[in-house]
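task queued by scheduler; priority normal; single chain, no ligands, no partner chains; default sampling; output format set to structure tokens
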Amino acid sequence: MIAAIRHRLEAAPPWVFGIYAGLATFGTYFCIYAFRKAFAAAHFAGVAPVWTVEYKVALVIAQVAGYALAKLIGVRVIAEWPAHRRIAGIAGQSLIAQAALVLFAVIPAPWNIAAMFADGLALGMIWGMVFGFVEGRRQTDLIGAMLCASFVISSGVMKSVGTLVMAWHIAGEWWMPAVTGVLFMPLLALCLFALATLPPPSAADRAERVERVPMDAPARAALLRRYGPGLFALVLLYVLLTALRDFRDNFSAEIWAELGLGGQAALFSLTELPISVMVLAVLATLTLIRDNRTALVINFALIALGLALAAGCSALFAFHLIGPVLWMTALGGGLYLAYTPFNGMLFDRLVAASGSVGNAGFLIYVADTGGYGGSVALLLLRNIPGLRLPWTQFLIGAGIGCGTLGIVLIGWAAVWFRRKLERDAKKWEPVFRNKSRENKDS
């Protein structure tokens, strides 16, 4: 059955394949968020602080720390992971995460913080395995946009589901994360079956986007040496974006409560849905751009636009020129417009523009390792006694600061990569011309 579906997909029009693959990857990672974000809908208000750190903050730090460690491990593992083991890897790690959520409910607080660390550790490499089905295709921008839209909308949806599970007395705040995970297991199994039917990139895909293969240690080191300065600026920017995006995401319940809009389950989804639609629509159009260097420049421009939106709307809200719902929606839109390209399209185009045989998953995990480390650092910074500002005030200041500094970093990176890729193109152009002449003569 899998072979029959795969054969039909190989013969299907590109747009049909793109939508099918996009829905399969979207659905898979949408379900993964059931194991990751549902717990954030609970406040855990009655639990004593852990070493002066609020209990829920300690939970978030533990999960993100596990996630960051998985990203560090994934720098090597995802770069070398073979295609035929991706489905088993996703399924196995999802089951481990679900088991961790059960332990979270069974083990008393605060010792169950270790279970949340295990949850993050189990989930941290799934993104790279899912994106492995996406990269190196002519439709990567469309499929990648649909995949990335999953973590925009799914976070809000899972917190809405978690809120309803508690509101309808299906489970209390301790069992709610595990119950939410169980609810999405059947859909996850269906989506994994759909992923298993995807054919590998075609010859036309490889010609346009470069062949994607596992990367050993020398190949990874060579790529980092070649693009080190530019990648350093991008990773530093991604650290800022990940920290701010995670802060807004993990503590949206507390922020809405401070704004006088707490307890409204629909808010989690309603403020994320416009974001996902906007990000999907904008990034999917990059599929129409065949030239990889042009697409790379547009990725940089979209990131700068998102940073400007995040900083601008935070400043407007600080001066009471816009309301809280518009601010949270615009801030999320700006952050995700800047954050989303790092999770696939930006690095996929960079690999294609460089002509390097390898995979984008390696670069994604290099950035993620720093990004989630920065997320932990921001949480610890916010909990320093002298800096323990209200959630909303802290988010406003972080939005303005991250947006402003980020524009400087992305501007510098854009100029560096443009010059570097132009020099590389001039260097290799005579080689390609001679090879073309040899092929004609033969």
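post-processing summary
- The CA atoms of residues 433 and 439 lie 10 Å apart.
- The chain has one domain: 2-199+213-428.
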